[in-house]
Amino acid sequence: MARRSEPPDGGWGWMVVLSAFFQSALVFGVLRxxxxxxxxxxxxxxxxxxxxxxxxxxxxxxxxxxxxxxxALSTKFGPRPVVMAGGILAALGMLLASFATSLTHLYLxxxxxxGSGWALTFTPTLACLSRYFSRRRSLATGLALTGxxxxxxxxxxxxxxxxxxxxxxxxxxxxSALSLHLVACGALLRPLFLTEDPAVGGPGAQLASLLxxxxxxxxxxxxxxxxxxxFIPYVHLVAHLQDLNWDPLPxxxxxxxxxxxxxxxxVASGWLGDAVPGPVARLLMLWxxxxxxxxALFPVAQAPTALVALTVAYGFTSGALTPVAFSVLPELVGTxxxxxxxxxxxxxxxxxxxxxxxxxxxxxxVTGNYTASFVVAGVFLLAGSGVLIxxxxxxxxxxxxxxxxxxxxxxxDTKVTLPxxxxxxx
Length: 426
Fold this sequence. Notes:
Blueprint: E1 2-4, H1 13-33, H2 38-45, H3 49-65, H4 67-77, H5 79-97, H6 103-119, H7 122-132, H8 137-179, H9 181-187, E2 192-194, H10 197-200, H11 203-211, H12 214-230, H13 232-243, H14 248-275, H15 280-297, H16 304-333, H17 338-367, H18 371-388, H19 404-411, H20 420-425
Parallel strand pairs: 1-2
Helix pairs in contact: 1-7, 1-8, 1-9, 3-6, 4-5, 4-7, 4-17, 5-6, 5-8, 5-9, 7-17, 8-14, 8-16, 12-16, 12-17, 12-18, 13-14, 14-16, 15-16, 15-18, 16-19, 17-18
């Protein structure tokens, strides 16, 4: 285990970035492209589309709600064995799914088993990356998360080609082999011991302090609000365009335009997050506000040129807020608490992601169009921006750069009384 007084801001950290790049591709690239299997499952099991949709939904829910488990295990044993075990579970779930004879088998194999594997990989990897970087943290996170966008382009046609040549069972076997590369990604996560680590205690002590830490709780509320409206265009933009008499193919192509802008936004925001002085939360508030405004303007735009411009703006700003959202957390809780903090944050904010799309669909059913859906989605992001203003040092333009040991002191400004025996065990 490497021992450092503060994050090295490079060195082996770039290998961790490479690991996070492929890991984000193998988790979220697979999830985003899994709709290719949708039609095959409907035909093979002769089930309703709504029931088949639960396969991916269960997988996403398990991945997000299981994040604290992956974080706690990483705090106890380090990220390397946890992520490698998660890769084995993700591959095993896809392998067993290839032998499924009912939707229940797919719920259990892909939804529960692979979802559990994804829960053990994504959060520990990003948390490990945050511990390796300080001044370049936003750029490193932005580069790592570009794997999601690039793999979304590559995996959809790849999976379709596999289906046409090997049918869905053979395709799942090959996706299982692809997922097994998560084990190699986990092997690259060299544990890093920082001098602040002994001060933060074990998982129990960290969780207790986080639940009493006001800035962390407010940040969790902000990201939950942001998450509620964030994904609405990916779910309902094509349907909204078809209501405006667009053909399905150009409407779907507009999502690809958003994905390209998303990629550019992640890299640009990562660079700006490290170059612009002051708290990263200010940059996050800017991108969140612009994303909310672009969402609220979608119903107003009618001309194709205006819709394309709004889609580019939404893709860039929504992609730009992603890396800085992960970079704000270490500033609030310190790198010593990043595993537990990120896991707890992802579990709570997933509530917004799960409720956003059904709420948008409900508003469409009630009003007969997507005007209210996009406006309400924008309002959720603007509300999240308002909460971000309450974070510490937001309006302080001359605050000195905090060192890791200062972050620990600030993160523990609220003292929590714990039983001595429990602390000893941690």
